Structure formats: C-alpha cells, structure tokens
Amino acid sequence: MPPKLPQPSPRREIFSPVEPRRRTSIRLLHRRAIVLALSCTLWLPPSGLLFCGFRLPPSREASADRRSLGGGWSGGRDATVPSGKMRCVTTATVPARGGLQRILGLAFGLAVVVGSTLGVGILRTPGLVAAQLGTPAAILAVWIAGGLYTLLGSVCLTELGTMLPQAGGYYVYARRAFGDTIGFAVGWTDWLTYCAVLGYISIGLGEFLAVLVPSAAQIVNVVAVAVLVALVAIQMAGLRISSRFQEITTAIKFVAFLVLVVACFVLSRRVPAAIGAGTLTGGVPPVTLAGVVIALQSVVITYGGWQSALYFTEEDRDPDRNLPRSMIGGVLSVIVVYLLVNVALLAVLPVATIARSTLPAADAAEALAGVRGRQLITVLSLISLAPLLNAIMMIGTRILFAMGRDRLLPARAAAVNAGGTPVVATLVTTAVAVALIATGTFQRLVAIAAFLLAVNYFVGCLALIVLRRREPRLPRSFRAWGYPWTAAIVLVGAAAFLAGAARGDTVNAGIALGLLVAGMLWRGAMGRRMLNAKC
Prior knowledge:
Elements: H1 26-42, E1 50-51, E2 54-55, H2 60-69, H3 106-117, H4 121-132, H5 136-163, H6 170-178, H7 180-212, H8 220-236, H9 239-267, H10 271-276, H11 289-302, H12 319-348, H13 351-355, H14 360-369, H15 371-405, H16 423-439, H17 442-470, H18 485-504, H19 506-534
Antiparallel strand pairs: 1-2
C-alpha cells in the first residue's frame, strides 16, 4: 500500500503577484490534468487552480471555493489578505458579520450602467454642443464619436473587470498594477469624488423639487440630507433591496426618456425639415477644430458613469458572462437613447435655438405642451436622479470596503451586515456627503471631480497595458477587442482629456494633484509600518 501523502491545509493562501514562482509538484500536475479533462468535457474554463493571479492550494476546498466565488473574493472571516508587492504572506481576519453576497445578475449590471450614465446631462449638453457646431450632421457625428470612444473604453476595462472580479473598481486595478501606494491614492480620491458627487446630486434633486414645490426652496439642504437618509435605509435593508431599487428606477427612467423622444416625433411635423437642413442661420458659428474638441469633451463627460458595473463584479453570480454584456450592452443602449434625444430635439427646435438654450429639452417640451411641458422635464430630471444617487452610494461603499479588506484602511471598513451591505462604509460615505452639503465644500470638490475621474481612468487604462505585459498568463475570460490599438486609442484619449482638464482649470487641477500626492505620502508614512509588522 503506497504511503499516504500529507493533505493540503484547507486555509487559502494568496501570494503576492511578484513572488517568485515555485516549482510545480507532480501531484499538482496530476490535479491540473484532471481539471483540464473535466473542463474539456463540461465546457468549463480550466482556471479553477488560479484565483485572480494568485496560486491556490490544489485542494477540493479551494476548487469549490473558486466555483462558488466565480473568481472573486467575499472577504469573510479567516480570509487571507494580499500584501501588495511585499514578498510575504499575510492572513487577517476581517471583523464582519458576513461577506458580500453573489446575487447580482445581468439585470443589475445593465441597470447600474444605464442608471449611472443616462441622466440630466443629456437634457443640457445638446445646447453646449450645438453652440460649437453649426449643422445637425456635425452634432450627431460628435455624439456618435463620443459613444464609440466610450465603447472602446468599456471594452478595455471589461477585460480588467473579468480578470480581477473584486469590489473596488479602479482601486483594484491600480493596486494590482502599481502597488499599494498608488492604489491607495487612486482609491481614496475615487471615493472622495463619489462623496462629492453624491452631495451635489442630492442638492440638485432638492432644487428640482423646489421648481415643482416652491415652498421647498427654503429647505433644499434639508431635502438633500433627507434623500441621503432614505438611501441609507435602502442600503441597510440589504443588497437584494438596493439592487431591485436600482433596476426598477432605471427601467422607469429609460421608459421616460423614450416617451420624451416619441412625444417629440409625434407632436412635431418638422422632422424632415430640421434634420435635412444644412447650416442653419441665426447665430450658430461655423464648425471649427476647436469647436469640435470642446463639443467632444462635453459629450464624453455626458457619457460618464458607464464604468459603474466594474465596482460590483465580486457580487455578480457570473461576472465572466454578465460583465461584458452589462458594460457593452449598457453603453450601446445609452448611445441609442442619446442619439434619439438629439434627433428629437432637432425635430422640434432649430440648431440656433438649441445653441442659445441652457436646457434644450425643457424648451422643446414647452414648445410642444406649454408650461406643463417644462414641468414634465423637471419631473423627468427627478426620475433620472433616483437611480444615479443609489448607484453612487453603492459604488462609494464598495471602494471603502475593498480598501478596508486590504488593510489600507481600518479593517472595520470591510464590515458587512447579514444583507450583504458594507455597513461602516455606508455610514462613513453618507456622513462625508452630509458634511460636504452642510459646509458647501462639495462645490469645490465637484469642480475637481472631472480631473480626478480623468486621472483614475488614465491609471485604469494604463493598468491594462501593464498587466498584459507583466502577467500574460493571468486568466482572462474576456479580452479587449483590437488590443493593443484600442487600448492605445483609449489611453491617448484619456491623456488628452486629462491635459485639457488641467489646462482649462489649473487651480482645481493643482488641488486634485495635491490630493493624490497627499494620499501617496500618507500611505508611504503610515502604511509601510503596518505592512512591515505583518511580515
């Protein structure tokens, strides 16, 4: 009888990405051969022995864990925490009542992408674009170009999302590619940006409500805080409730925009004349290169929010399958709606009128239905903000959760309640947003948010290239189409947008850069001691 081989420990060990590879044992080769044979038979990817680029022990427990997690990590009790680029293995127990729940599917992925992207911007931006471009053809061409660029970005970042299906978004990719210091800087500025936007949109919701109910104009801040408290209640009810709220409100918003488009076409008889006309007179300047650049920048900003599904891959039942469909399908849906809205506005108003308008959708609705039409646009704006606020709240909490789990923040930030909601992260995010509303400092933070988002987007695109070169064997269920050309186009575009944002607002760009450097210095001073103590 052959001697019994020692059984591997059921504890999962996760090694640093830069740790030298160990020689594969004969037993591991045998197990890989069995997994490969079963994979060929069952049409399953033979990647069960690799977990986000870290090597797992060849045990049945690890294989079962890989199948249940789908490549992610719930970070529950007795979970091991990777120590960045340190050449050591660390284990840390996260004080949580539970872990993130893998219950999300394609419906939520589409809802969070569409709900975060489709908003008030499309009701305003057509006026900014028309002010730079003189013909309907040029206007539609810029919206198509911005949509295609957004689609390329979604394709590139989808590869990162399926390769590293963990909560945290840009933070996860920056930390994996560039280490803890840059990862921390990206993570905390990304979270701070979402806190500022959360406060800003809450104020915007209160102002829209004041248009319908004039008495609410005196308590806009109170309304904003009440909205945040209601969102916290939804989050604390659990992931099932908050995700269902996202799906329902996004569906209502999507249908409302389609109703707006149909109403413009049905109630207007100027569709052929408006779209078929050439350069329309009445104060619209001719098309110039500078005008195209400004218009394209405004369009790309309006497409912002498409990356939201990346923050929830750890909670997706099948991120390898659902994330590409959510990202690409969501972006395509938004492109179609944006084009339809622009065509509908051109069917009602001439380009010159749109160019002079600060809210073209309201002017078009008023032309069709009088004052009541403008009120309906206000209602549409309120509807569009509900899923956006919910998505931003959920995204911000996932960033803090991921940083707390990796011990770049206090581990209590990774505490999760029985419903799958990061409790501490939700309370901290809400408290910061309320503080920004009370002090009014969210206005300055929102002014630098565009620059910070551009920086994080640039770092994310760069991480794709770095990980392709440094870790080519990392399992990738989805690969960016046309790589490296698509990645190069996206990276150059992100760099150009970053340079334009810095040149257009040097003061806020300097503040944003200072926040990034401050985060890196804080991490270098305080975090290194913690990592050395673990080793």
